[in-house]
Amino acid sequence: MFKDLDPLLHSQLRLAIMSILISVKQAEFIFIREKTNSTAGNLSVQIQKLKEAGYIEVIKEFKDNYPNTSCKITPKGIKAFEEYVKTLQLYLQVKK
Amino acid sequence: MNNESQLTEQESLELIARMINKAKSDFRETGIGALMWGTIITVCALVSFVNYYQHWRWAQYIWFLTFLAVLPQIIISVQANKRKKYTSYNEDAMGGIWISFGIGILLLSFFSSWSHLQNAYVLFLIFYGVPTFATGIARRFTPMIIGGIACWIFAIISMYTIFPYAMLLTAAAAIISWFIPGIILRKRYLKAKKNDV
């Protein structure tokens, strides 16, 4: 019996955010927006969901006197992401 | 990007790979630091070579230029950090390697002049090769891998070379390991910047 794919990660934008954050130490909101080609509003909502799940940490600071939001993946997020990829691979192996 | 799109397993994996590649390919080194250090070390080494025959008084202090160059290097690094929209583990490691190199070179400079170390240029060349080679490997940037190896080859040759000619080897090492990679990085950076506009 297969494990279900984590519904929080099995959505296009949230998965894209997590994929970016798994490959860097910390990324600014604007960087994630550029890479995912998403709108600021939608991105904020999805970031909030990931934050509430404890998958990412949101850091608010000042950069050149302007507020700046950055995100970084948490250990819980890394574990969830790895689990998600493992489950995906299992699904794909069976389909072959 | 639409969040509600239903993904197949294959699409999910493709999306993950695409995003990881996008994040990784964003890094753009301006090449200014490599160009600056390549130029300074080349100039210092060539002046030392010429000064062996010319005996200019001022030229005895030419290597102090490398201490002065630390200030613009700090400014370059601060500006690069401000420009960056993300930080990566790889860059932290690179920063650590270059800071260790800077401290190592500083200590070696003091030690070699304090102890009147003969053929200190051999040690400098060995030192130059370490961060250059490490950066080349970490960034998969062949010109710096070649540069690092060139430093070590020149270090071996300089063991059998008398002083003024070892300065020519030092200049060649600086050109191959930093100046040429600096030009390549600069060209890439300007091209990428142009494509962004």
Quick rundown:
The complex is a heterodimer of chains A (96) and B (197). Chain A contains four helices and three strands.
Describe this structure in words.
The complex is a heterodimer of chains A (96) and B (197). Chain A is of the alpha+beta class and 96 residues long. Helices cover 56% and strands 20% of the residues of chain A. The longest helix of chain A is centred in the last third of the chain and has 21 residues, at 75-95. The mean pLDDT of chain B is 90. Chain B is mainly α. Chain A binds chain B through residues 5, 10-16, 19-20, 22-28, 30-31, 34-38, 42, 45-46, 63-64, 85, 88-89, 91-92, 95, and chain B through 1-5, 7, 9-10, 12-13, 15-16, 18-20, 22-24, 26, 82, 85-89, 92.
What keywords describe this structure?
heterodimer; A: 96 residues; alpha+beta; Arc Repressor Mutant, subunit A; three-stranded antiparallel beta sheet; 4 helices; 3 strands; 56% helix; B: 197 residues; mainly alpha; 8 helices; 78% helix; 1% strand
